[in-house]
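Re-run with default settings, no changes from the original entry. Doing this only to confirm the output is reproducible before filing.
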Amino acid sequence: MISHYDVIIIGAGAAGLMCAMTAGQRGRKVLVIERANKIGKKILMSGGGRCNFTNLNIEANHYISHNPHFCKSALSQYTQWNFIKLVEDHGIAYHEKEMEGGEPGQLFCNDSAKQIVEMLSSECDKAKVKIITKCEIKNVSQDNNNLFQLICNNKKYSSESLVISSGGLSIPTLGGSDIGYRIAKQFGLNSYELRASLVPLIFTDCLKTLCSDLSGLSIIATVSTANKSFTGNLLFTHRGLSGPSILQLSNYWQIGESIDIDLSPNIDLAKYLNEFKLQSPKSALRTSLSKILPKQLVSQLEFLYWHELKDTKFADIRNKRLDGIASQLHRWTIKPAGSEGYRTAEVTLGGIDTDGISSKTMQAKTQRALFFIGEVLDVTGHLGGYNFQWAWSSGFVAGKAV
């Protein structure tokens, strides 16, 4: 016995649920298949449980893709203002989070990310969308009548349109898998290399000990690769570095590459230290640095880089040496051993080549009625609500076309 639908969507995440409710509102008979035990699991854990559901400043330059123009059509068809209205229509209170040194315009639920999932679930219910959880896709094919055939939990389903909203490889415990990439390959679409992104960086040398000893400490810093720079909170962890600035940089950092950290982006340290020397010549270097940097951090850096000055008075330190220390603090060059990987990555960088996808509908150009939306595509947003907006926008345009 085969259950037939107009549209089958693989994946009940942000993009899949948006697509389902949009298609259902058009009168389409829609089935959503989810391998996890509940819908919207990534939504529920996002934003510290409050879901950074969009950003006030949605522009294409906040997205990474081999085709930087691809995202523009979907983002213009369904904007952040459209989603904000949906949130407001459901009476969900939200706020713009103030991020010191970070991306402005980030919108979060006042209460809980559960409200966003409940909103999407409610819209799907109203549109008579059927959702099946704990369902592992075993096979996808297409018959002689161009109907898609799926086998899931020993049951057979068919549909005129098939939408792949399976996400990427990030956080596999929430349902991430490679099925979307496998289906793309099966139907002749190319994909770019995948890697974990928006992810903490780790160390294996003496810096691991430093980071571990400072675990939980957060400062405002500017972090840079050769071509990209971000300012915001930097968090020391037991294994390395995290925080918004590092997560942003991980989109651009390559394995084997060093990163530069400005530990005091708002103060000219050379000027500061030399003035402090004049005012307090009998003070220790750590005394002055501890007034603008956390004392624990100053102690760790002193141990690693200028231990010989530990008991030296300012008056006995040459200005050239102070300038060198200031320069090092403004450009602390370190080399991560790697990242935390998909286990903690918020997104998967890379994915299905958008050259094979219509930017207006998300339909595969060489395979009628096959659609790809959300994270599975080679479109990755910066931290700050951009990836959710891509999910809403790409899901909406596909929902209008299926």
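The chain has two domains: 2-196+343-401, 200-339. The radius of gyration is 25 Å.
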